[in-house]
């Protein structure tokens, strides 16, 4: 089983959106039992809080629920437990590497690095644009799934 951890600053907007979008993509393709998908924060400021209403409302448009998800923090031990640790922007990556103590096994990626147009995913906490965040996350998740499929990691 491949274990994937999506990471953003607070684990209430982008990383849970990526977690639930990716889970929906793989379940619709019958691959859900091949992957363990979760999300976490690099900061402590939102720990225990539910998913932001903007993310909840955007995913609800696509029939995707975030029920039961509460913000958790990335821990150093997550490096051993996950095969892929995927951040949303360069700032996330820097903080992830600090928390994890580096990336000797090359498990840390930025989500849109799996797309044809690598870039950061803007934080809708600041922009208020959950539509754009959703589009970027969908682009990254589709690219990441294609990456896994091309390497025979999921089928």
Describe the structure.
The structure is a single chain. The protein is of the alpha/beta class. Helices cover 41% and strands 14% of the residues. The protein has one domain: Response regulator (Rossmann fold). The chain has a 4-stranded parallel sheet, sandwiched between helices. Helix 1 packs across helix 6. The longest helix has 21 residues. The mean pLDDT is 97.
Give structural attributes.
protein-tyrosine-phosphatase, Ptyr_pPase, EC 3.1.3.48, 155 residues, four-stranded parallel beta sheet, protein phosphatase, 41% helix, hydrolase, 4 strands, alpha/beta
CATH class: Alpha Beta
Q: Compute the gyration radius: what is it?
A: 14 Å
Strand content: 5-15%
- Helix and strand pattern: EHEHHEHEHH
Give the class from helix and strand content and strand pairing: alpha/beta
CATH fold label: Rossmann fold
Instruction: Supply the CATH architecture.
Output: 3-Layer(aba) Sandwich
Number of strands: 4
- Provide the residue-averaged pLDDT: 97
Give the count of helical stretches: 6
Helix proportion of residues, in percent? 40-55%
The strand line-up of the biggest sheet is: 2-1-3-4
Described by strand count, sense and barrel closure, the largest sheet is: 4 strands, parallel
């Amino acid at each position: 089983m491949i274990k994937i951890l999506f990471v953003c600053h607070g684990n209430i907007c982008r990383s849970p959106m990526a977690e639930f979008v990716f889970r929906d993509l793989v379940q619709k393709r019958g691959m859900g039992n091949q992957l363990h998908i979760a999300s976490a924060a690099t900061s402590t400021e939102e720990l225990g809080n539910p998913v932001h209403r903007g993310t909840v409302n955007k995913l609800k448009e696509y029939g995707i629920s975030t029920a039961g998800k509460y913000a958790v923090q990335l821990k150093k031990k997550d490096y051993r437990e996950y095969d892929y640790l995927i951040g949303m922007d360069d700032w996330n990556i820097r903080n992830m590497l600090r928390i994890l103590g580096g990336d000797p096994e090359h498990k840390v990626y930025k989500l849109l690095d799996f797309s044809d147009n690598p870039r950061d995913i803007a934080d809708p906490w600041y922009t208020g644009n959950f539509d754009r965040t959703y589009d970027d996350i969908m682009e990254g998740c589709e690219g990441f799934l294609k990456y896994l499929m091309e390497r025979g990691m999921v089928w």
